[in-house]
């Protein structure tokens, strides 16, 4: 590939941004899964892809951890994220290793351990090795998901048109279903 360096840089930058709380707005996990598919198809090098994603996740989480340590009091007072961060901080205090490692297996929870660890005041020399392992778990897990999905389902562009149409409609229906269920699960706010 002529643009391999550009692809790897973009993949690393997207993994770093996605590892931060901004990852809730950027579909970086899907890009990492797609990179796993590209590894399976032979379009990207497996070791370079894993290294770039691991480094991106590590950098994004370390920056988030540092910002949470520095500006923790402001984050605690922000009502929109304060409750979630307090719950994450409580789980972190009870089971720090399990919480940091296992949260990186979920695309919805992987953004919480770094700010929670920063808010809890975890020291750098304890956090960095734990985060290095968690970032590796993250990179391996989501790249492997893409790799094995591509190996299982193959290249979808070779599928018949009707199968692609049905798959697209089913995917949109699933997304709409889960978005609708998310709106009904909102916790009511207490009146002042």
> What is the radius of gyration computed over CA atoms, rounded to a whole number of angstroms?
19 Å
Low-confidence stretches: 182-187
| Helix run count | 9
- Written as H for each helix and E for each strand, in order along the chain, the element string is HHHHHHHHH
The figure for the number of domains is: 1
Q: Would you kindly provide a written description of the structure presented here, covering whatever features stand out?
A:
With 192 residues, this protein is mainly alpha-helical. It has one domain (4-154). Helix content is 76%, strand content 0%. The chain contains 9 helices and no strands. α2 packs across α8 (124-153), α3 (46-70) packs parallel to α7 (113-120) and α6 packs parallel to α8 (124-153). The longest helix has 30 residues, at 124-153.
Spell out the key features of this protein.
192 residues; mainly alpha; globular
Overview in brief:
The protein has 192 residues and is mainly alpha-helical.
Topology:
Layout: H1 4-19, H2 28-40, H3 46-70, H4 72-77, H5 79-94, H6 96-103, H7 113-120, H8 124-153, H9 161-184
């Amino acid at each position: 590939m002529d643009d391999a360096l550009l692809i790897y840089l973009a993949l690393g930058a997207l993994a770093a941004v996605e590892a931060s709380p901004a990852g809730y707005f950027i579909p970086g996990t899907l890009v990492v899964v797609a990179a796993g598919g590209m590894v399976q198809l032979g379009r990207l090098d497996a070791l370079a892809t894993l290294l770039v994603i691991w480094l991106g996740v590590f950098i994004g989480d370390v920056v988030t951890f540092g910002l949470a340590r520095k500006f923790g009091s402001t984050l605690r007072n922000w009502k929109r994220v304060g409750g979630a961060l307090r719950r994450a901080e409580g789980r972190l205090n009870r089971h720090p290793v399990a919480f940091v490692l296992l949260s990186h297996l979920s695309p919805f929870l992987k953004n919480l351990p770094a700010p929670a660890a920063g808010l809890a005041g975890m020291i750098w020399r304890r956090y960095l090795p734990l985060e290095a392992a968690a970032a590796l778990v993250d990179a391996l897990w989501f790249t492997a998901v893409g790799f094995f999905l591509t190996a299982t389902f193959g290249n979808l562009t070779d599928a018949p048109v009707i199968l692609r149409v049905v798959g697209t409609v089913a995917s949109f229906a699933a997304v709409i279903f889960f978005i609708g269920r998310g709106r009904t699960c909102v916790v009511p706010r207490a009146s002042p």
